[in-house]
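The material for today's practical consists of a large collection of protein records. Read left to right, the backbone structure tokens trace the chain's path through space. An example says more than a description, so a record of this kind follows:
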Amino acid sequence: MAAESIGRLLVRLRRERGWTQQQVADAYCDASGTMTKDAREVGRWERGTRLPTLHTRRHLAVVFGVPLSMLDRAVSVARQGRSGSPETEALTGEVVSVDRRTFVAGTAAGALAGLAAPQHVDPALVTYFEQQLAGHYRADMLLGPGALISTVTAQCDLIGQLIDRADGPTRRRMAKVGVSYATFAAWLYLDAGNPAASLQCHDVAQELAHRSHDRQAVACALVDRAMARTDQGAGRAVIDLCEGAMMDARHLPAELKVFALQQHAHGASLLGDRSQVDMLLDKAGRLVNRVHTEEWGTSCLRTTHYVEVQRATCYGRLGLAREADQVWQQIIPEAPTASRRDVGVWSARQAVAAATVGEPERAVELTRQAVDIALLTGSARTRRVLAAVETAMQPWQAEPIGQDLAEVLAPIGERV
């Protein structure tokens, strides 16, 4: 019983990530560079028959992407025999409520808080964080932001501390991976309906990009910032940021050029310039075959229809509902299952288009699909588009189909 609190915390952390005890042991070995832990040892920590030492907790903090102070306090509670107390519950609650100010300010309150600066930061940690991020991208598509924000922001905090403790080459590599984490955190906050926190994360990404001395990281951070400004409707700012990212285009890989061009097109759509939208997206489309990776280091998992998704979205913003609907009809049926969260957003956008062209029944069916996904992923972005569906369906509000829509949307209102 003496160690129940730390055991409960470790079980909670593991289950929220969907891991087995063996997966925790494997991740621990990767983080610590040892091969001395197995599932039986993890089971002892979780059952409370053995308390993890400070050395062990340091590596567990890396494995789970949480502050070391969380694990330390859980052990302290266990040692004092206060398992099951309100304090213990507060500790497990930290998994979903990591202090955002810690990440934004770049303070030392995260997973290495209170430790003396190590003499060496192993470059292998960069690879570890890159591998973790790839998994986060996939999880975001299936789970939405709520399941990931606390983990990603805690890892951002840890990366920020490692950057300041690493030597020159490792520091720059760590800063570059930090850009990807910060921009991904910004995306999660945006999708969760917190644009202010998203912009603060972009500020962190900008600083880390320059510290990395990597022109690609700087360009990616600029375009990610432009994506946030698109959601604010700041068309000219979007265009300026994308043009800034492309100033050194000859040194950028095809994937970053496509990313910049499509976001530039969104800026043009905000200013009502269809010809510019089509020109930029056509140019991006010609570059897609040069892209050899599926994940481009940005917040979204790219699909084979990536450029056309942007075209349909821009057409919808321009008021070209029929054209947008036609493009969505080509894209959504072929979307991979890994893009579930995005399919929810796309279905809601197509529902707006269907209502606008006078097909309310189809709009309701598309809305139903979007609502089901929104409830699974908790995407505020999807809910915002669903609000636009309700507006587009106003002409049928008093009719039976309007009542059907209200019933379909009701669960979203209950969740909000």
Summary: Residues 29 and 55 are 13 Å apart (CA to CA). Confidence is low (pLDDT under 50) at residues 82-118, 294-301.
